[in-house]
Design a protein that fits this description.
about 675 residues; mainly alpha
């Protein structure tokens, strides 16, 4: 719909808007309010830029005169009445309610972008005689309750979508505040997290919308951009690229991956809003925990009852969703950051869901999409790579995951282009992709945090490795080769002196730690499952010369003792073998398998296994809030004002506020 058409339709409301923002007070019983909220067409069908261009010029007078008229408070009361009048079994799209919510969203968007944060609560002042004194709390509660109670039908779909968009707009003070987590700066978010009674049901509805992905009704009256929607707006808005950090620009400029079907704006918006709400910190979490986060963390499987220690069912208040459907939907949607962040929130904060994931036999449902994203690291942001690795690290803390991942056989990996991979175990594939990521990082990103996470996952998996295939085994040995060459170059440059700059470790210290971890990974595989990993033994024999320069090195010597015990044992077996003709890969491998039958673990020195755990830092919101809002700016379809955004103004991509720490008694550690 063109700009001229939009303005012509809106022009019929010009006099009504002038009365709304004027100095003369209009009583709540006047017919004016019915006329104001009766728009000739769905506002959401018009171009958002045209609606804002028409409405925003009136808003300055509304803010100026509202203390005398309380017109905005009256408008909020009327909006609550309109929502209350929508029947549960509505038979037609409630156009008046849709327009009312959309209109309120436009006004609130202006407040967030142009009005000082401390003045916004004053706009919700109730007019004299109003039954509701706290209009902001009442409007938030009404909006949340409607969505929590409503079923997404062809008739209610658009109203539910507009309410979620309006709530996202209310939360957007985080985009414009100087400090995204400072108390008192986010009046709307504070009002939302104060709704502890309705928050669980609302969080449950957001999850169910994500799981069910209700399809969009045909001919939904929504504005469709002529070209690329938000992307087009981003390129035409002056200064937008300069204000957003590089990672957010890359989100905008890159074509989105394949979306799960059916298309569902309602499900996508629900997920964004759930991420915003659950990652908000009030700053007083001990006394007033975020009820949306609490609900997500306490969510339980719909098909199983919670039992007390005696086995008696517990009728708790935890929300219930079908974990099997949630698991499958996550696997389907793990093509971008939104579902990845939800998976992280669930497995990190919800013990019941983590346990459910760990007992699934089809681990490839979620691990394979994560591996494909990791394979395409060059097309991903560092934040997304971090989240993938953290998810793997959390899962790898459980021995059953590390054991079961080697039992899942992937028949083909069509997206892996360097080599044909068929009938490969999921465990071998994870090893291959983690090592590939380390090598890519060494060449491109050079990010110590990313290195540490990759090696931590490999170290956790090592004691449980079974039947690593030839390619994974070769990659493991070649990783040692690459790190050894890096170590030697850095050692020559620094003359072997490990000097640190302040608290930061030197490059030599870093590569020393990395080499030690790789050697401990190899030690762990050989100690626990040598006979089950003949390809690892073959790869070590094939390139045993790589280890010779480090055998007497004071920092690596003790870690090579076990490796050389293995090499000496199998070299002796080869020397004693009566082999006709030239050695071949098959002959060596067959001999390794044969001699492994007489191998005993007592030959190895006992060494404690490295075990890494994941812990969030004290203020994870410093990482997650900019990350989540970069996704909202990209995927919500809402036209945000780039000139007002301060959350991304530092121009730097937020670093992951996380730590990787060794378990007590592990004998070593790595921090990020």
């Amino acid at each position: 719909m063109g700009q001229g058409t939009s303005k012509a339709m809106l022009a019929t409301h010009e006099q009504l808007l002038k009365q709304l923002v004027g100095v003369a007070k209009t009583g709540a019983a006047e017919p004016f309010w019915e006329e104001l909220l009766t728009f000739p067409v769905p506002l959401c069908k018009l171009a958002p830029a045209d609606v804002e261009a028409f409405v925003f010029p009136f808003c300055e007078d509304l803010v100026l005169n509202n203390s005398k008229t309380q017109h905005f408070g009256t408008l909020v009361i009327k909006a609550m009445e309109v929502l209350a009048d929508v029947p549960r079994d509505v038979r037609a799209m409630p156009l008046k309610a849709v327009n009312t919510v959309c209109f309120l969203g436009v006004l609130i968007k202006y407040f967030n972008e142009r009005v000082r944060l401390e003045e916004i609560p004053l706009l919700f002042e109730a007019p004299p005689g109003a039954a509701e004194k706290d209009l902001l709390a009442a409007w938030v509660q009404t909006s949340l309750q409607y969505v929590a109670d409503a079923a997404p039908t062809n008739e209610t779909y658009l109203l539910m979508l507009q309410i979620l968009n309006m709530l996202l707009v209310m939360c957007s003070t985080q985009l414009y505040a100087v400090a995204s987590t400072s108390q008192g700066s986010h009046v709307f978010l504070d009002a939302l997290v104060a709704q502890s009674s309705v928050a669980p049901a609302f969080a449950q509805k957001m999850l169910m919308l994500f799981i069910d992905r209700p399809p969009q009704p045909a001919r939904l009256p929504l504005y469709k951009a002529e070209s690329q929607g938000v992307l087009r707006i981003a390129y035409t808005a002056a200064g937008f690229v300069l204000l957003l950090p590089y990672h957010a620009f890359r989100y905008m400029a890159r074509s989105n991956p394949a979306r799960p079907s059916p298309d569902s704006l309602l499900a996508d918006t629900a997920l964004l809003l759930l991420l915003v709400l659950t990652h908000y910190s009030t700053g007083i979490e001990v006394d007033a925990p975020n009820p949306f986060r609490t609900a997500l963390q306490a969510c339980r499987d719909m098909d199983y009852d919670v039992a007390d220690p005696e086995g008696n069912p517990v009728q708790g208040s935890a929300i219930r969703v079908p974990f099997p459907k949630l698991y499958d939907r996550l696997g389907e949607c793990l093509v971008d950051d939104r579902a990845t962040l939800l998976l992280y929130a669930l497995i990190h904060g919800n013990e019941a869901f983590l346990e459910y994931v760990l007992v699934r036999s089809d681990l490839d449902t979620i691990v394979l999409p994560l591996m494909e994203m990791l394979y395409n690291a060059v097309q991903r942001t560092p934040n997304q790579i971090y989240m993938i690795l953290i998810i793997l690290l959390i899962l790898s803390q459980d021995p059953s995951f590390n054991a079961n991942i080697h039992k899942v056989i992937v028949q083909a990996v069509p997206w892996y282009k360097e080599r044909l991979l068929t009938k490969v175990s999921l465990g071998s594939l994870v090893v291959i992709l983690l090592i590939r990521t380390i090598k890519y990082n060494l060449a491109k990103l050079r990010d110590v945090y990313l290195h540490t996470n990759c090696l931590a996952v490999l170290a956790n998996m090592a004691p449980h490795a079974v039947a690593l295939n030839a390619y994974a085994s070769q990659r493991l040995v070649s990783l040692f080769d690459m790190l050894a060459r890096k170590y030697n170059r850095v050692s020559e440059t620094s003359n072997g002196i490990e000097e640190s700059a302040g608290d930061a470790p030197s490059d030599l210290q870093i590569y020393t730690d990395f080499l030690r971890i790789v050697l401990e990974i190899i030690n762990s595989i050989l100690t626990h499952a040598l006979a089950k990993n003949p390809e690892v033994v073959y790869a070590l024999l094939h390139r045993q010369e790589l280890f010779a320069p480090f055998r007497t090195h004071p920092k690596f010597g003790e870690l090579l003792d076990n490796i050389y015990t293995v090499l000496d044992f199998f070299n002796s077996g080869m020397d004693a073998a009566d082999v006709k003709g030239e050695w071949s890969v098959d002959k060596v491998l067959n001999l390794v398998v044969k001699n492994a039958q007489s191998w005993t673990e007592e030959r190895m020195k006992v060494m404690s296994d490295l075990k890494f755990t994941y812990e969030e830092e004290m203020h994870p919101e410093e990482f997650f809030i900019p990350y989540v809002w970069s996704l909202v700016c990209t995927h919500s379809g809402i036209m945000w004002d780039p000139q007002s955004i301060t959350l991304f103004s530092a121009g730097e991509e937020p670093q992951a506020a996380t730590e990787v720490e060794p378990s007590p008694g592990s004998g070593g550690g790595a921090t990020a």
